[in-house]
Write a structure and sequence with these properties.
This protein has 628 residues and is α+β, with helices and mostly antiparallel strands. It has 2 domains: 381 residues, Rossmann fold (3-Layer(aba) Sandwich), CATH 3.40.50; 229 residues, Galactose-binding domain-like (Jelly Rolls, Sandwich). 15% of the residues lie in helices and 34% in strands. Strands 11-5-6-10-7-12-13-16-17-18-19 form an 11-stranded mixed sheet, sandwiched between helices. Helix 5 packs antiparallel against helix 6.
Amino acid sequence: MQKTKKKLILVTLIFSLLFSAPFAGGFSALADDTGTVPAHVVEDGVTQEAFSYEDAVRESVFVETNLDTDGDGVNDRIAVDIIRPAETEEGLEVPVIMVPSPYYERLGRGNESQLKEFEDGVPVKFPLYYDNYFVPRGYAVALVDMIGTNNSDGCPTTGGYEETEGVKAVIDWLNGRADAVDRDDNEADAYWSTGKVGIYGKSYDGTLANAVAATGVDGLETIVPIVAISSWYNYYRQNGVTLRNNGASGLANTVVASERRDLCAPVRSEILDLMDDPSGNYNEFWDERNYVKDVDNVKASVFLVHGLNDLNVQTNHFGEWWEGLEKNDVPRKIWLTQTAHTEPFDFRRAEWVDTIHRWFDHWLLGIDNGIMDEPMADVERGANEWETYETWPAADAKDVNLRFGPAAEDGAPGVLTSGPVQGNNVDTLVNDWTRTETQLVTNPEDPSDNRLVFLSDVLTEDLRISGTPELDVRATINGEAANLTAYLVDYGTDERVNHQGGSSGLRQLDERDCWGQSTDRDSACYRQHEILTHTRDYEIVTRGFMDAQNYKNFWESNPLRDHKHYRFQWDAYTHDYVFKEGHRIGVVLASSTRSRTVPNRDEVEVEVRLGQSGITLPVSGGKKAVDF
């Protein structure tokens, strides 16, 4: 079904006299060679409402794949619900904003948990605002049911290549490289598509965007992953520590289409066996689900958004992915928020709609509106307090090694210092797996057998970290196995975003505002939110967990030898944080915790060599910015 594309040319009716963006302050249209085809309308660098949402074409297609994930002998089809301007029936060709998801049957999308709705087999309600806003501006919106979910065939594989291939097949269809049928089993052709696709998605949806981008598929021009996974190992593990049991198999059971739950039981059983919860090790199952290793295939631009306090999809997901994008010079932009697992339409709505509008116009319609000339990074410091930066991480961020020193007196916390530590000092902690992270980090001055606390001097000026902290601990352990836990803590009273309150730090309000056009069945109006704050005397900035048996690598466990000296090195979660003047930086070391991990319950002691152990922080300004 290879189709012939109409060649689009840019007709600019008003030009700037100087070196300004071609569309700035003027009116432009995109038309075919004859000028008779309905056209996009561009004014002030962005597309304008020129098409009717009420009259838009709404349809469902089922894209063929070469997959048979449920083993029924028939290739799986991927269900796609599409809304596009009626003028696409008159020759208008449009780009596609795609939202692939496993959540269209249950859970829903957005904070209002919206689901697709159908009438006589025709989709009449599309979750989220993208259809209401962008269809009138000359885009198609395609909502893709991930393989094994809702109306798609097959079985979910929790990040496996089958899920990636299913979404990729839809992009291929939009570019004439794959076949599809409609609900009546008639051949369906995407004659209306320019072939240019942008994928938006939060959480699992954004994870699919990362996965498909890592294939380098032609036609995928941009992705917008919001609080998205980049490696499923990092979602269920950290450095050999299992964060939750039965995760991948359990999630496949959650998202599978209800009518196929029993049919897909063998697939879930295989996942349960292959993911190897007891060891927590990395293996081929997890390697298949690691998109970071394929980041050099990414050709699409990336607009990444993540919560710096996301305790669901932790920040190492964007940290490792972003590092790979940077190495490959992928065009990119990033927003980092103080909220948790949520999306910018809820925490920064007006700015988000304006920015993503210009982003899609630029990458999917080729409009030169200056979006890529703006600062690369927006970082939220406090509730609704944003700063912009030309690069991320901070261009002047340098690794600074901070050492763990002994306490000045018995019972006092240890010292965190950038200077040398004299002597051969050791300190010991005893594993108590019942301890929560709150118990471990509060009251740092109080003695405890189950943790070691190291505090900096009171800061005389603000200190910013930007990047990924690294732990380096020399220790002996009187047992074959132990977990290691580290917290980087800001000790100082301040008003902070309450990211564990409400819905990821947000409270949903009764008031609504509207973004785009509505119908009786699909409203463009959504409830507003406010950011929750609270005043506390500390904040856990980031965490880091390690299974000590993985001291060589994360592919294999090596039982520890009693009282042998080991060097344990592991990353904490990526962050961007400002420790304020008058506060103190703290590092808390423990063995296991029942907060956020499956703890090791062995009764072991960890003897830490001070002076030889410490943490490396990516400090803006480097060593000169550290005065302790």
